[in-house]
Amino acid sequence: MDFSKTLINWYLKSKRDLPWRKTSDPYNIWLSEIMLQQTRIEQGLPYYLKFVEEFPSVFDLADASQDNVMKLWQGLGYYSRARNLHETAKYVAYQLDGIFPKDYKGLLKLKGVGDYTASAIASISYNEPVAVVDGNVYRVLSRYFDIATPINSTEGVKEFKALAMELLDKEDPSAFNQALMEFGALQCKPKNPLCDSCPFNTSCLALKENKIGDLPVKIKKGKIKNRYFNYLVFSSEENKTLLQQRKGKGIWNGLYEFPLIETTSDIQESGLIEENKEFQELVLDINASISLYNDRPVIHKLSHQHIHARFWLVEAENLPRIGVSVEKVKEYPVPVLIQNFLNEIDIENL
């Protein structure tokens, strides 16, 4: 059986109608690939459509403010992707006159672009014979060839990349790469793969050995970290509140949030004040009253940590620093955790 021909034939009959498949423009391909990293197409598609409408060219994206980019990205997660997207757009627009590098090695030098994204753009936009390897590809190849090497190990990354390159249709790398990824998404799914209708069901080694559910193999991640966030939702007689922008290398860098006190465990009001002397003095200075909005913490799960969040309503005549009009709060890019709170509460009438 010719693996690549069988795969591409399946793709031509079964592929989904997606907007980035109607163009080879590297801007659109780059945008879609960055957005779809660790994101399902169903979730990423609306964001892609919003971005190409708001920023039809790399110049439009480069000229946008970071806050505008982050606001449009809000809810898609892994926000470093949005920051890198914006930085790369500025580099391509201002340093490369809007022209993306035309080969794999050049693309790999762009911020936020790794082996997978560089391979995808190079093959789809420029027909360069480089293989893509993403989660779907790992799954298909590990099952078809019955490979138990962990896909998140150094050895596994090299082995699967080499295998994908060996199988690659050198005459039509664009179709082959897209076909292999689409096959993993629609046919060789993580759970309940469609083996009965699979064009490879007579040659798939994992199916033959009844090992479909065991592959691919992945080294287990470390222990999940629990963090306890206490957000202080200030309100004043001037109908203003306080927001601050997250900085540094931690989660949600560049997004806005209410003033935050992080504690080592879930605490009540007395504990909140006792654990933070600065907040204790502030409450006294502005003669504020405090009430807990949610009796049970909201648990927001990230890939490596779980956030246990409480929202504390802090009412005062005056704010300790220059505030933000509550009418403007919803214009700021915020984490989904904060957005869900804003959707639930009437922030303008606190």
TrEMBL record:
EC supergroup of this enzyme: hydrolase
EC number: 3.2.2.31
Keywords: 4Fe-4S, DNA damage, DNA repair, Glycosidase, Hydrolase, Iron, Iron-sulfur, Metal-binding
Keyword NAD: no
Catalytic activity entry: Hydrolyzes free adenine bases from 7,8-dihydro-8-oxoguanine:adenine mismatched double-stranded DNA, leaving an apurinic site
Cross-referenced Gene3D superfamilies: Helix-hairpin-Helix base-excision DNA repair enzymes (C-terminal), Hypothetical protein, domain 2, Nucleoside Triphosphate Pyrophosphohydrolase
Cofactor(s) named in the record: [4Fe-4S] cluster
Domain HhH-GPD: 35-186
The record's free-text note on cofactor binding: Binds 1 [4Fe-4S] cluster.
Name of a matching Pfam family: HhH-GPD
Residues making up the signal peptide according to the UniProt record: none
Family to which this protein belongs: Belongs to the Nth/MutY family.
Function description: Adenine glycosylase active on G-A mispairs. MutY also corrects error-prone DNA synthesis past GO lesions which are due to the oxidatively damaged form of guanine: 7,8-dihydro-8-oxoguanine (8-oxo-dGTP).
Name of this protein: Adenine DNA glycosylase
Lineage of source species: Bacteria, Pseudomonadati, Bacteroidota, Flavobacteriia, Flavobacteriales
Annotated gene: mutY
